Amino acid sequence: MGKVYLTGAGPGDFELLTLKALRLVRKADVVIYDRLINPQILAEVKEGCECIYVGKENKHHILPQDEINTLLYEKALLHDCVVRLKGGDSVVFGRGGEEALFLHARGIEFEFVPGVTSAIAVPEMANIPITHRGKSISFRVVTGYEAPQKGYAQLNWETFRQDETIIFLMGLHQLSTIVKELLKIGKASSYPIAVISRGTLVDEQVVVGTLCDIYEKAYQLPTPALIIVGEVVAMREILTQNSRIGDR
Predict the structure, then answer these.
(1) From CA 113, how far away is CA 207, in angstroms rounded?
(2) pLDDT tens digits for 190-241?
């Protein structure tokens, strides 16, 4: 009986993969990976390692989550080192906690291996710091993935009145709803917002606008995309003038 490593692969840029994650990928007997994993990471596996794709896209899953759980369990019975590789960090809307509970209930040893979350890394690498003195002293991260099924009504939008940075992950398909709800609670139509598509990768696209125009500017961007709302967005123009965004 082996061990399962619930491993965050970072936001996409290969160099944002942690040293520990890289070591485990190279050691793994089996790698079970998601859609947003950089192919460079999979090129690091040892000869004979079994790589299994279980990616999820909007309304289309290769395997339902309960079958992924079972797959992890079955592979751990057969192999010493199983790496469950997820984009970003496995417990930031990555279902890592569910997989851990499933394995624990069946006596399988597991370990969380933190990854660099896209919620912070993607805006930062696009020259948008998510907090900044005088602009934002707090931030919140919100998932947009479950919105089509459960609806954003489950969110208490009144709590979004504070001038903090708001990051929506996997929310591009709900961009119009996000804008509508923020305007409804009193955010100005000129309030800054940005959408970052394929963040940290060579084909990254960053669209900056306001609540009144961002939908028309950004709704056709390719996924994955992150939405960031707040006064810190305006800092991108200044910072990009005086620094060079790093090589991707």
Answers:
(1) 32
(2) 999 999 999 999 999 999 999 999 999 999 999 999 999 999 999 999 998 8
CA-only gyration radius of the chain, Å: 19
Select from 246, 141, 142 the least CA-distant residue to 201: 246
Q: Determine the structural domain holding residue 38 and report its residue range.
A: 3-113
Catalytic, out of 13, 29, 34, 89: 34
List the one residue out of 173, 123, 4, 18 whose CA is nearest residue 73.
4
The yes-or-no answer on residue 34 being catalytic is yes
Which one of the listed residues 13, 56, 125, 187 is annotated catalytic? Answer: 56
Task: Examine the residue annotation and report whether 29 is marked as an active-site residue of this protein.
Answer: no
Whether residue 1 lies in the annotated active site: no
Is residue 247 in a domain? no
Which DSSP letter does residue 136 get? B
CATH of the domain at 162: 3.30.950.10
Q: End of a domain among 72, 93, 113?
A: 113
Catalytic residue among 13, 29, 125, 170: 170
Residues 176 and 226 reside in one and the same domain: yes
Q: From the CB of residue 96, how many other CB atoms can be counted at a distance below 10 Å? A: 22
| One domain, residues 69 and 99 | yes
pTM, entire model: 0.90
